[in-house]
């Protein structure tokens, strides 16, 4: 009974915060003011607090621009965690735009939607990402293209790094800064999270969202580590596959170290 009462209170407070902040964000988006990048961070912090997601940051986002953060992808909670520590904008598949609730929240954060199966529009989508990077926004890329089980890094799609290449000609110094970020879910109720509890953290595509969300709310105490790696300079003469391999190496190393408690 106490658990369900806590869930009702947390959900109610999060809904209230959303109703209060959403109209303000709509105005900020309409005016295209800089605050439209910072208000979502407040909402993400509130959301993390309400669902019991405790974020531990190791390192920091690079202060140079343009900045592309490249992270492994475990769950929708990745967005809350990253969004609570930096003014970021995410790249999401086009289907997310039509999702109930999540689609609205994504639009309010000015998410960049891409239709990966529509090859004829790929160039325009990459150019949009490049323009947003060049405008000073911190763009988050999940190069695996889907969520994993949280225990490993899936194959990285090098084609997605075309966004960095598109931003190079627009960058003031001809350099896009690519920074790997490892996302590791490490504890539940303060205890090390083993494979048994991994479904609480991970959200594979074949799991229904609502039951998974209820499971997270019932637990109410999950720790996630965000590890910011060394920035890689992407220039006009950079090799996309090499940059991809360098990012992959860092992500694997940082993720494994955190999962092993180092």
From TrEMBL:
Which CDD domains does the UniProt record give?
A: LPLAT_AGPAT-like
SUPFAM superfamilies given in the database record: Glycerol-3-phosphate (1)-acyltransferase
What are the protein's UniProt keywords? Acyltransferase, Lipid metabolism, Membrane, Transferase, Transmembrane, Transmembrane helix
Subcellular location(s): the record lists: Membrane
- Phospholipid/glycerol acyltransferase domain: residues covered: 67-186
User: What molecular functions are annotated in GO for this chain?
Assistant: acyltransferase activity
Annotated Gene Ontology cellular components are: membrane
User: What GO biological process, any one, is recorded here?
Assistant: lipid metabolic process
By its UniProt entry, which PANTHER family does this protein fall under? LYSOPHOSPHATIDYLCHOLINE ACYLTRANSFERASE, PHOSPHOLIPID ACYLTRANSFERASE
> Could you tell me what this protein is called?
1-acyl-sn-glycerol-3-phosphate acyltransferase
Native source organism of the sequence: Rhizobium quercicola
């Amino acid at each position: 009974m106490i658990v369900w009462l806590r869930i009702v209170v947390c959900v109610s407070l999060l809904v209230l915060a959303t109703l209060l902040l959403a109209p303000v964000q709509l105005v900020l988006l309409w005016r295209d003011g800089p605050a439209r990048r910072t208000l979502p961070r407040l909402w993400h912090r509130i959301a993390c607090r309400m669902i019991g997601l405790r974020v531990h940051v190791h390192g920091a986002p690079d202060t140079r621009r343009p900045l592309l953060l490249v992270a492994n992808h475990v769950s929708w909670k990745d967005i809350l965690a990253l969004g609570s520590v930096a003014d970021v904008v995410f790249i999401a598949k086009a289907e997310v735009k039509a999702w109930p609730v999540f689609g609205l929240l994504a639009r309010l954060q000015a998410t960049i939607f891409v239709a990966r199966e529509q090859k004829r529009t790929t160039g325009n989508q990459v150019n949009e990402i490049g323009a947003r990077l060049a405008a000073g926004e911190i763009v988050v890329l999940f190069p695996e293209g889907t969520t994993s089980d949280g225990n490993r890094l899936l194959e990285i799609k090098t084609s997605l790094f075309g966004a960095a290449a598109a931003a190079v000609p627009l960058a003031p110094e001809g350099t896009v800064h690519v920074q790997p970020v490892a996302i590791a879910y490490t504890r539940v109720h303060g205890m090390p999270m083993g494979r048994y509890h991994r479904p609480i953290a991970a959200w594979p595509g074949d799991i229904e969202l609502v039951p998974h969300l209820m499971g997270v709310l019932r637990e109410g105490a999950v720790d996630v580590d965000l590890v910011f790696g060394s920035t890689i300079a992407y220039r006009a003469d950079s090799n996309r596959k090499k940059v991809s391999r360098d990012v992959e190496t860092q992500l694997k190393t940082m993720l494994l170290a955190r999962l092993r408690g180092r």
